[in-house]
# Entry
Amino acid sequence: ARVLVTDGPHPAAEAVANGPTLIHRPPAVTVARVTGAGDCFLAAHLAAELTHQPRDAALRQAVEASAAHVSGKDVP
# Structure
């Protein structure tokens, strides 16, 4: 089992049943929009997993993509 938790500008976390909990703090950004932030986070996390990125890299990429999205930037 695994859980991903986001909370706006606060750290995001990933917890698994038999492993360490990972935490990643998003960069400070000026918020231009919030709609779609969670969708962007999950899409980036899934994309990282599909390319076999480690858990910590997947969480970091998801947090950074979501931060870019809410700041109004294009997400790669």
